[in-house]
Design a protein that fits this description.
- By secondary structure, the protein is mostly helical.
- 66% of the residues lie in helices and 8% in strands.
- It has helices spanning 2-28, 35-49, 64-92, 99-113; strands at residues 54-58, 118-122.
- The chain has a two-stranded antiparallel sheet with strand order 1-2.
- The two termini are 28 Å apart.
Length: 130
């Protein structure tokens, strides 16, 4: 079932969201300071490409650097990517078949706004970070 959902997701919105994260990651990797943010963008982009069967979990070892990094991320790329999720989610919710995929888009908004200090884990082990 996860594979079918992922294939439909890929066609409807996953590929375009992945491209948005890829562009943001490439722009952020231009400077040395932006490389960690670019890597986070690539990581979330792969998650946005194939989200069903995975979830995010808080990392216990993240602290103040993740908080500062998340504030920088929010200013540099986070709100643009979250806006993409909002627009795509609203467009998908216009049809009955697209409602679950629109809801999945809305669930990706928090991780697109604050990605640092989180990790992507399979849904059968959501507490693997602990």
């Amino acid at each position: 079932m996860k594979t079918i959902l992922n294939v439909i997701w890929l066609v409807l919105s996953g590929f375009w969201l992945f491209l948005g994260y890829l562009v943001a990651g490439l722009i952020l990797c231009v400077t040395v300071i932006g490389i960690p943010f670019g890597l986070a963008s690539f990581r979330i982009g792969v998650y946005a490409l194939w989200p069903f069967g995975y979830t995010t979990a808080d990392r216990r070892d993240s602290g103040a650097p993740s908080l500062v990094g998340n504030v920088l991320w929010l200013v540099l790329a986070g709100w643009w990517l979250a806006l993409g999720h909002i627009v795509t989610g609203l467009a998908l919710c216009l049809t009955i078949i697209g409602i679950p995929f629109g809801i999945a888009n809305f669930k990706l908004i928090p991780v697109s706004l604050m990605p640092l200090g989180r990790e992507i884990v399979p849904t059968d082990q959501p507490f693997a970070a602990r």
